[in-house]
Amino acid sequence: MSKPEAKLNGSPHGMKTLWPWIAALAGVIVVHFLVTDRLNPYFFTILMYAGVNATLAVSLNLISGFTGQFSMGHAGFMSVGGYVSAFITTSLAASHPDLINDPNLSPFVFGGVLVVAGLFSAFMGYLVGLPSLRLRGDYLAIVTLGFGEIIRVIVLNVDAIGGARGMPNIPELSSFAWVYGVLVVTLFSVWRLIHSRQGREFLAVREDEIAAEAMGVNTTKAKVRAFATGAFFAGVSGALFAHYLRYLNPQTFDFNRSFEVIIMVVLGGLGSLSGSVVAAIFLTVLKEMLRPLQELTKLDFRMVIYSMLLIVLMLTRPNGIFGTKEITSLFKRGRRSSKGGAT
After folding, report:
1. pLDDT tens for residues 12-53?
2. Cα(48)–Cα(72) distance, rounded to whole angstroms?
3. pLDDT level of residue 218 (50, 70, 90 thresholds)
4. In which domain, by residue range, is 95 found?
5. What is the Cα–Cα distance from 98 to 116, expressed in whole angstroms?
6. pLDDT(225) > 50
7. Is 248 helix (H, G, I), strand (E, B) or coil?
8. Angle separating helix axes 106-132 and 219-245, nearest 10 degrees
9. Which of 125, 150, 247, 288 is the most buried (most CB within 10 A)?
10. CB of 248 closer than 8 Å to CB of 170
């Protein structure tokens, strides 16, 4: 009995592996009370955007990094989650304001809205993924890019959610605890999924789809599952974004937004969750660090310098900052080297 029990505790699904995630959530709550209303609003906004971008990058990494499917319409799923959640909360604010304004009820309402927004985005991911994920390579990229543009055009022509004018007066429900708590939950969920049977199917599809089919893997089903799961967390990130910015505009979710997320995933490393988080935070902060240069020169060189830095990083680190490894492997390597030096 002792051997199987030890094996379970050492596996990615053992109880011991839950404590770091619980500690991370507790740390998020502590930091929430330390930075809220104390940090400069400008820096706090950058911090919030970085958390939203990190969740978005992790969700795309599940599709592109772990399953090997090149999606160029991820911003479309983010917009679906943002607009669905904003429509629900603005409707509730008009009809039942107590549900939104009551500090004891609003967290439960917002949590339910996040789930609904994610499920709606996952459903859209399923609808798009089921017929299109039989394609591969460039064909799949073109289809997903087209999907993102279809969603944007639909939003532009729906007056119920503001149309081209955008959607203002969205209740401010997002907070540091929500944004980074969702990021921890997203990382945990994707990590557990990758270390499950479905995760091994994702990796098999990424490495060699033909060989995976020969081994009995339903590759289309695996790709659709990954697509829908990634779309779910993209929708949740869109809902968090909407309820912090309090205004949505269709131009926010154009193909440039999808390209930014792709850059974060590639720069961090395809197949590295911690790489996606680090790259998302780095690129979000970098764009704001270059803003004073625009004020100094009266010209917008930010994107030029931004692009040049990306080129240099990709030339020096073609597999991304972490490649397929996680940040924990660096600590393990340092621990081994220190033990080797001691001996």
Report:
1. 555 567 888 899 999 999 999 998 888 899 999 999 999 999
2. 24
3. confident
4. 2-253
5. 20
6. yes
7. strand
8. 140
9. 125
10. yes
